[in-house]
Amino acid sequence: MSTAIETPERTEGPSPAAPARTRLLRWWPAAVLLVLVVAPYSALPVPGLLDGPLGSAGSLQLLATCLLFGALATGYDLLLGRTGLLSFGHALYFAAGSYATNVFLLEAGLPFALAAVLGLLFGIALALVLGSVSLRVTGIGFSMVTLAFAQAGSILVSRNPGGVTGGEEGRAAPADLLPSWLVGIDHTANLYWIALAYLVLTLGVVHRAVRSPTGRVWEGIKENERRVEVLGLKPYGFKLTAFVLAGALAALGGIVHLLLTGGSTPQTTTSDFTLSLLVMVVLGGSGTRWGPMAGGILYTWADHRLGDLAGSGAVAGLPAVLRVPLSQPLFLLGVLFVAVVHLLPGGLARLPSRLRAVPYRKETGHQ
Fold first, then answer.
1. Distance from the CA of 342 to the CA of which of 34, 175, 177, 210 falls in 20 to 30 A?
2. Maximum Cα–Cα distance for the chain, whole Å?
3. DSSP class of residue 5?
């Protein structure tokens, strides 16, 4: 009588190509960065996305603005997505960097480099002082205190004390005090590279901070602040560190914005500006590495391009029932935001994982 010996069924492990593919995927940020660096040298037309060729002045200006707000949203997520702090006053530090640098240029006549350093230090000091007060309360109380400080800053700017802010008109940066390689349409590429450098710096700082021991405490504070206290740590100091770091990145962004727009505008001091940052973060995916950046870029691009669409002849020729809502850029942005939030819970950052899960659902019959 023979005994049949059953051999275990062979299971296929990961294909040899999988590790290589994984290594290639790790390098996609470097590939994207390389494309962004050489973009000003390209004359490639991008119909629908940009008005002109990729390397034209108008396209570079729009791309630089998108990169700037992608970085700003990434810095804001250091509070919202990483530490669980909902601040309604983040715009204040962005405006502080812009206005302080402009005032040092106009009133003190300082060179741009020195004025920018002093403007950044002013933004950091303001974040330290106001953060130390705001963080004495938690939850909705913290949000309301930051909103109060932002409103006070916005009123101060609009009142134009001593004529240094320009009131509702804002104040243009003095072209004669700026470096010549940053002034004029011929140097738009230089401004674009500065915005790109700001994005890379912000991503690097946030990534390094989140992976540090302090970043792990931020994650613990977001999940359960009381548990962090039980472990013998004082959340206040860690939250203040996140607040000041986010404020410093925002102030630096304000300086870059000053260069891109050629002046300081009171719109950057309003709570609506911070709410836009909140929408960017939620749109991209709060608490993720690339989500806030993607949300900031998409929101800024849509804000500019949908405005052109709303005023186009194609919309003007539609029946009134369609023309009226479609002629409002904010309506179009709202529809876009609601669609993304509804169709992609977790934001744009969750899109790759959802796409990878589609074949699996088809194979297994899951809905």
1. 210
2. 106
3. P
Tokens of 243: 């607040």
Phi, psi for residue 264 in degrees, rounded to 5: -110, 135
Question: What would the DSSP string read from start to end of 233-290?
Answer: --HHHHHHHHHHHHHHHHHHHHHHHHHHHTEE-GGGGSHHHHHHHHHHHHHH-TTSSS
* 247 contacts 126 by C-beta, under 8 angstroms: yes
CA gap 290, 158 in Å, rounded: 35
CA distance 87 to 294: 20
Judge whether 309 and 332 are in contact, CB under 8 Å. Answer: yes
HSE, CB side, 13 Å, CA atoms: give it for residue 298: 21
- Residues recorded for the chain: 367
Q: Are strands 171-172 and 263-264 parallel, antiparallel or unpaired?
A: antiparallel
The C-alpha atoms of residue 299 and residue 310 are separated, in whole angstroms, by 16
For residue 172, give the DSSP letter. E
The whole-angstrom separation of Cα 73 and Cα 92 is 14
Token reading at 345: 């819970």
pLDDT tens track for 15-60? 555 565 566 667 788 888 999 999 999 888 888 788 888 889 989 9
